[in-house]
Write a structure and sequence with these properties.
With 105 residues, the protein is mainly β. It contains one helix and eight strands. The strands form two sheets. The protein has a four-stranded antiparallel sheet, with no helix packed on it.
């Protein structure tokens, strides 16, 4: 099946399958999913006071998908990634008032 909307067939199929979510409300490294998957995006529900890193791994470290600085994390924004990860999805935040929601497959 060919698409003319700029999306690959895989992305179109993924959008139809639906995502799952996980809320993170603590200061820690959090393993969201082990193994391969798809990171749709991150909602910042309240302002974090420290940087956050997103890893393609099962622990903090290794392949960095993205880094969000503290100044970029005001309450309310949605960060859309739509990227594959191969090893796992780990979110690392040092803020005691972390409140984010991860949308993934």
């Amino acid at each position: 099946m060919a698409f003319n909307d700029g999306f690959s067939e895989t992305a179109a199929v993924r959008s139809l399958q639906g995502n799952t979510y996980q809320n993170i409300a603590l200061s820690a490294q959090t393993l969201v999913k082990s193994g391969a998957g798809w990171l749709h995006g991150i909602a910042v529900n309240s302002q974090n006071i420290s940087a956050m890193k997103i890893y393609d791994n099962v622990v903090s470290g290794g392949n960095v998908i993205a880094s969000l600085t503290a100044s970029a994390q005001t309450s309310g924004p949605w960060y859309q990634f739509d990227v594959n990860f191969n090893n796992g999805l780990v979110i690392s935040s040092g803020s005691s008032n972390t409140d984010i929601t991860i949308s993934f497959q």
